[in-house]
Amino acid sequence: MAATHRAALLGASGYTGADLLRLGVPHPSLDFVALTANSQAGQPLGAVYPHLASAGLPDLVTAESVDWTGLDVVFCGLPHATSQAIIAEIVSANPKVKVIDMSADYRLRDPETYKLWYGHDHVAVDLQKEAAYGLTEHNREAIRNARIIACPGCYPTAILLALLPLMKAGAISADDLIIDAKSGVSGAGRGLKQNTLFCEAGESLTPYAIGSHRHSPEIEQELSLVAGNPVTVNFTPHLIPMSRGELITAHVRLDKASNANDLRAELESAYADEPFIRVNAPGEIPSTGHVRGSNNAVINVFEDRIPGRAIVIAAIDNLVKGSAGQAIQNYNLAFGLPETTGLGQLAMFP
Cα–Cα distance between 322 and 158 in angstroms, integer? Predict the structure, then answer.
């Protein structure tokens, strides 16, 4: 029987926190002993999320009241810009603990890039150097031994899974990358915002952060790494009126590849042994309905009517493969467990 690891979750009141508990409570090796949500501290979890009331979890507490020294792993679901200082405090108190961060605070390797896009200095630059980018399928060796694992954003997860193997092989050009992306409303978080009210988001598809989304430098960072030279993407996200799910459409220019079939073959080779990635058969269109509630990703490639171009489409669940599921996959890897442990859920349909 696998060892049990004492776990804490910071930010248990957010959507990613709730989904991490949905997946993590049945996990055979996770024992959640501390859940933080400062504004709801003192309440039972069921008061915040009634669907988790029967899970036998501890009441919510403030982060300041947690004893970090007795923990094996800390999952961090705090908003961006709030994780850096508390993670520094955690690893100082317990140098052996593994921190799996679902915020953006440790994803960008260059502190100046972080400052440019997030508007303030990174307060734990030394720790940033120790963080591994947590796209499991493409960074296993670094993740396995890292003290801090920085899980990618939901948009970068879908985009990079679709494009990294193609860019690495030189099958597509590093120039002229146009990415259209759509995410369910849960991707905007649980806080009260006018644009996510039912009457605002329902029956309405809306682009946002046009030309300036904070996931752009993260996408460019990883694509540039495999391309060997700077890559710039044209990335436009959209809010779509559904709770969860994400679909990206990438318009690419061919390089070494001759057509869409070459690109599909490259993806099939790259992901042949990956349990969570499925490359569809020719003509089969990825849909968020094919992955809803699961840690899976589906990808396919289609010919473009413009010569020398192709269209790559990928779908994930933004809360699972795009956040909480990927965090548990990285936990499994970091603690020597099969990556599929606790992540065998099939997609929910309809």
Answer: 7
Q: pLDDT tens, 105-159?
A: 999 999 999 999 998 888 888 898 899 999 999 999 999 999 999 999 999 999 9
Task: Say how far residue 179 (Cα) sits from the centre of its chain.
Answer: 17
Strands lying side by side in the sheet with 60-61: 60-61, 30-36, 5-10, 73-76, 98-101, 148-150, 131-133
How confident is the model at residue 2, as a pLDDT?
A: 64
Give the residue ranges of DSSP H helices in 120-249: 125-128, 140-145, 154-168, 198-201, 216-227
3-state helix/strand/coil string of 89-138: HHHHHCCCCEEEECCCCCCCCCHHHHHHHHCCCCCCHHHHCCEEECCHHH
* DSSP letter assigned to residue 172: B
This prediction's pTM: 0.96
User: Residue 298 and residue 210: Cα distance in Å, rounded?
Assistant: 26
Can you tell me the distance from the alpha carbon of 131 to that of 134, in angstroms, rounded to the nearest whole number? 9
3-state secondary structure of 222: helix
Q: Which domains are assigned to the chain?
A: 5-129 (3.40.50.720), 155-317 (3.30.360.10)
Annotated catalytic residue 199: no
